[in-house]
Specification:
Length: about 280
């Protein structure tokens, strides 16, 4: 069975949401903040490829004016957002990112790298936003697997230490197919053979990069126990698909932000409805 790293991440939030999004592929509303994140990702790819912040800003302005050009067309504006406000925020993020990196020594190996690697009886596919090497605080050369996030809420390191999507990325980076390619849809990384030989034994760190504050959160390393947990999740997804049983997770706050409340059948009360319920008592 083939699963994507992003699907596994959604699965850990809610199996039913993962089914709606990745199995049934139901249409969902895309808001402006989601499209904004896609445009920033696109501009950062330009920056990490060219090291030219003004070129990245120019490209961000272009795609923010035409988000459909990168498949990021959106259908509505969340509260407290505006075209001009997000435009300014995007340009500021890119320039602050560039200013921060002027003081850091790093080597970019790949950006928006698409991969497919074997995983026991399964396969894992996905995209890595950025692969770079940089010395740790202890002076050890480290391979950093970076995922850009434009969420307004920054998680804590202990949460990210068990994040299954990061586990999938780190595991993939330890496989030769990640670097050497795996079929026509998953081409080799430029200089992939050289990078594989020189980086296969290098320590790895997963990094959650918070774009809104230009701060990174260390998601930690991964070991065999983490990879066994990842494999159990992949097997759980396979069993759910075989039996067509997807148990929704309604224990957290993810329902409030889910795009599939209608097919799920779960009604999220509005603020007005909540006030009416309070006055009823």
């Amino acid at each position: 069975m083939r699963v994507s790293a992003s699907m596994l991440g959604v699965w850990m939030t809610c199996p039913l949401q993962a089914r709606f999004q990745y199995v049934d592929q139901l249409p969902r509303e895309i808001n402006a903040k989601t499209a904004f994140g896609s445009c920033i990702h696109h501009a950062l790819h330009v920056y990490n490829t060219t090291n030219d912040v003004e070129e990245a800003v120019k490209e961000f302005r272009r795609v923010w004016n035409e988000p459909e050009s990168i498949g990021a067309a959106f259908t509505y504006w969340p509260k407290y957002t505006s075209f001009g406000g997000l435009m300014n925020a995007g340009c500021e993020i890119l320039r602050e990112y560039d200013a921060k990196l002027q003081w850091e020594k790093r080597r970019v190996l790949g950006t928006e790298h698409k991969f497919l690697v074997p995983f026991g009886a399964h396969e894992i596919t996905g995209f890595v936003d950025l692969l770079e090497t940089k010395k740790s605080k202890r002076g050890i050369e480290t391979l950093r697997v970076i995922d850009y996030k434009s969420h307004s809420k920054q998680p804590f390191s202990p949460q990210l230490r068990v994040n299954i999507q990061f586990t999938a990325y780190v595991y993939a980076s330890m496989q030769p197919e990640f670097w050497l390619g795996n079929g026509p849809d998953f081409p080799a990384m430029p200089n992939g053979e050289f990078y594989w030989e020189t980086h296969k034994d290098m320590p790895r760190r997963a990094i959650w990069y918070h774009l809104m504050t230009n701060k990174e959160v260390d998601a930690g390393d991964r070991d065999d126990n983490d990879f066994m947990r990842l494999y159990r999740v992949a097997c759980e997804v396979e069993r759910a698909l075989d039996h067509e049983v997807f148990v929704p997770n309604i224990s957290g706050d993810s329902c409030t932000f889910c795009s599939y409340t209608d097919p799920c059948g779960l009604h999220i009360p509005t603020e007005e409805e909540l006030r009416d319920q309070e006055t009823a008592f």
